[in-house]
Amino acid sequence: MLRISNLHKTYLKAVEPTLRGLSLEFPRPTIAGLLGPNGAGKTTTISILCGLVRPDSGTVEVLGADIRTDLERIKKRIGVVPQSIALYPPLSVRENLEYIGALYKIPGTILQQRIRHFLQLFGLDHTGSKAIRYFSGGMKRRANIIASLLHEPELLVLDEPTAGVDVQSRNLILQFLEDYHGQGHSIIYTSHLLEEAQQLCREVAIMDHGQLVVQGDPRLLMKDHGFSSLEQVFLHLTGISLRD
Amino acid sequence: MKKIIATFWNECRLFIRDITGMVLLFLMPLGLTIIMALIQDAPFREYQHIRFEILWLDADKGQLAENLREGLEETGQFRLIDSLDGRPLDTVAVKAAIQGGRYKIGIIVPRSISAEVVNSANQVANELGKSLGAAGKLPERPTRQATVEIYFDPVTKQAMKSALLNALDKQLTKVQAEMILGRLSRKMEDLDSTGVSQFNLEEKLQAVRLREFAAGSRKGPQLSSNSVQHNVPAWAIFGLFFIIVPISGNMIREREEGSLMRIRMVPGSYLSILAGKLLFYVLLGTAQFYMMLVAGLLILPHLGLPALVMGQAPAALLVTALAIAITATAYGLLVGAVFQTPNQALPFGAISIVILSAIGGIWVPVEILPPGLQQLAKASPMYWALDAINDLFLRHGNLKTVATHMGILSIFSACFLFIAGWIENYRKK
């Protein structure tokens, strides 16, 4: 599903590299957690695999396709849920989804069916013409996820999808991700909520300073390191110093 | 094409949702255009439509003073005042009124200046008559210097001074020439044995006259620039360029809010999405531009100004308006690409438009700028935009006439878009 090999990236004018030879692999369809403290390089990694940022060196294969040669094919097959609410606040959720669906050239009737389906699934079917700017944090997060699902991606990449949402919204989102994976789709997900990652992910990759620290099944990692939670493993491997 | 149409409609929706922004985008330039046309009406009016008041002290009471007075009044530019507060003017009163700023111009025609001109004319006629062998001699005496005194308030504009001095000089020369010619004609009659004048010297010397013609071959009303003809297109162009404020603001917001990231994740070229945005803003800018022109046509006449004359090439006008709107939109995309925050983009965008408009002849016609600035004006797209409109409105131009302007505006647009694209690409690194 995802193969990253010796990935390097230093942003222009940056003092230090963001990625220093990152290598990791999720061979099978799974729910994978990309974890790490602030500045570990998670968002840069996601941006590279979406084609938004160019790596300095290294290779990235997404769903068996190389990002350098098959980016267009990859874009059709993946959905990215950015950390920010990447929607137009003055428009209603339906208007936002209609626009995004049209950009993906989804035929009108199919698009309307999918919009209805997802609005119902995420509990937003009652919002009518209410502008997104008036939504609660949880509603915005749910709308943000729907916008990345309209073209039915094989791989869904989510950057902190549950940040700042209430318990009910988080529960709904996590339940959806479980179900989506159950339908044969792959998920890559970043979060600072390690309890959530422990609960959701079949595999995790912990990054720090632009490199892979450890990768594996969270339960096995906890067992191997002798801790009862993923958060303890994380702190053990990345340290307790602040990363502001 | 589907992406272009979808993006176009999305921009329409976003625009309609911001009612205040929409109203401001149309009403502010409209208000500006109307106010500027009204304010600049007086400075733009031809001098013959403005009557300058001149204090006129005639101490001569002779033919020359009378002719000068008639000549000045005939121009229609000057109203001569020979008494103040019910009392006839004297030298002290004239100087005091000018010094105090109550009047801008004072003219004192000294005593016996007419006699001096007559004496001068007699001298010339006698000299020429003698050369031609004419008998008799007109009375003459040695020349005494005489001066018509002119006083200006220091705040008087140089253009007004020049107009008055030219009018006086012309009139003085005319009076002197007429006197000399009259005397010479009489000498010629004396030479003719029949005693009947066969030769009218004044008439012969007036064989060459001046008359104004239009340089263009195309038919149409003869127009000259006035407040409406200058200000309406000029401020319409200025207002159209202010479209960069919503464009750059939206671009930065899209980048900050992450929707640009989502758009960039869509398969296919980003250019088609950019084209949809361009299409929307170009049509919006064109609509705004035409609204200004319609205001010049329908609203300004109700405010005492002449109606805007829009030339005779509607297709060329539409193409020109579209070219200007494309340039303004491309500039907006450039500003949106260069700057990271609205606080950077909006002040730069607004002030850069004011600068480009100032050097581009929007505030005052380029012709009256210093030579260096006249050259610099060509670096502003607004110069080419306004010149193209002047070609269409005042010079009865057509699409061929403004083709060079369109080409240059296209080069501006291409440069703006290229730099914007380069910056966006640079950000990927």
UniProtKB/TrEMBL annotation, chain A:
PROSITE patterns: ABC_TRANSPORTER_1, ABC_TRANSPORTER_2. Residues 2-234 form the ABC transporter domain. It holds the Pfam family ABC_tran. Keywords: ATP-binding, Nodulation, Nucleotide-binding, Transport. SMART domains: AAA. One of its GO terms (molecular function) is ATP hydrolysis activity. Belongs to the ABC transporter superfamily. This is Putative ABC transporter ATP-binding protein. It comes from Flavihumibacter petaseus NBRC 106054. The lineage of its organism: Bacteria, Pseudomonadati, Bacteroidota, Chitinophagia, Chitinophagales.
From TrEMBL, chain B:
It is found in: Cell membrane. Its main location: membrane. Pfam families: ABC2_membrane_3. GO terms for cellular component: plasma membrane. Keywords: Cell membrane, Membrane, Transmembrane, Transmembrane helix, Transport. It comes from the Bacteria. The chain crosses the membrane at residues 21-39, 232-252, 278-303, 315-339, 346-366, 402-423. PROSITE patterns: ABC_TM2. Residues 195-427 form the ABC transmembrane type-2 domain. It is a multi-pass membrane protein. GO terms for molecular function: ABC-type transporter activity. Belongs to the ABC-2 integral membrane protein family. This is Putative ABC transporter permease protein.
